[in-house]
Amino acid sequence: MTPAHLEQAVLVGGTGRSGTTIAGRVLNHHPALALTRSREVRFLTSAGGLIAALGSAVPSDLAPVDPATFAENLRGRFYRWRKPSGIHEGLHRTVHPEVIDDAVRSYLAHVDDDPLGASREVVFAILPHTLKHPDRRWIDTTPTNVRLSRALHTLLPRARIVHMMRDGRDVAVSFAGKDFGPDDPREALELWGERMMQASAEESALEPGGVVTRVDLADWVGPDALDHVRLLCNDLDLERDDNFEHWFTTNVTSEGMHAGRWRAELDSRTAAELDARYHQWCSMLSEQYPQFPLPRSS
């Protein structure tokens, strides 16, 4: 029988540059939770990963792969991959190759008869080895999590999904100078809008019941910040913890959020173009998905 804490994962996602890293670090300080190492396990929702191998068994627009290809990817690029900075990330940091081999053998032996069951077992076999505290609920911060909410809910029905949101103009500027994503903020804003649309479509297709919680990064600073964090903890069925709340109020600051950076870092013409297009995206999102809040303007 699978321990409950493995089934009750907290899967954080967003558009990229939207606060997933901050959310992972914050939640990692709650005594009931532990962040995976590395903080993006990737083999769940990335191309060629576990959900892609489930094919029609879960709702997903990922290109399907056969189980053998997923097993190869699990031993290969999900086990060790190189970031644009040159640093190597992946499961190799904490998971011994024998653990992967055992998980793969069991998965391949049972996946034809029970695709969902075999897929869950491979998750539960590997994830504890990525945690500093294996007896805690695990947190993963792969941004694509929110864009595959339905598939994740099918695979892990007791998991909770946290959708981190941020003003799309700040997201767009935040991509500039990184080793990933568009350098042009106008291109980056299009990426933000498309990903918000995808995430909203996924959320709207889920039955009501609190599977996904939207969190505005801007709400984590200011006089009501602690109240917002308490609301999230309540949604995640986490008990109040004084040490956790003290860490949050001490370490999460407005300076670190860089709110409104699009106004300060762009020339007036580019800022005006970005602002106009951002409001077009917000109008489209509100018209198509009026039930969902949008990020507060920075």
Would you kindly provide a brief summary of this structure?
The protein has 298 residues and is of the alpha/beta class.
Keywords:
five-stranded parallel β-sheet, alpha/beta, 14 helices, 298 residues, two-stranded antiparallel ribbon
Commentary on this structure:
The chain is α/β, with parallel strands linked by helices. It has a domain at 4-167 and 215-258. The chain has helices at 4-7, 20-27, 50-54, 67-75, 97-110, 115-126, 149-155, 168-175, 185-205, 225-235, 242-251, 254-257, 261-265, 268-288, and strands at residues 10-13, 33-35, 81-82, 88-89, 137-140, 160-165, 212-216. A 5-stranded parallel beta sheet has the order 2-5-1-6-7. The chain has a two-stranded antiparallel sheet with strand order 3-4. The chain is globular, with a radius of gyration of 19 Å. The chain starts with a helix and ends in a 10-residue tail after the last helix. The relative contact order is 0.17. The model has no long low-confidence stretch (mean pLDDT 95).
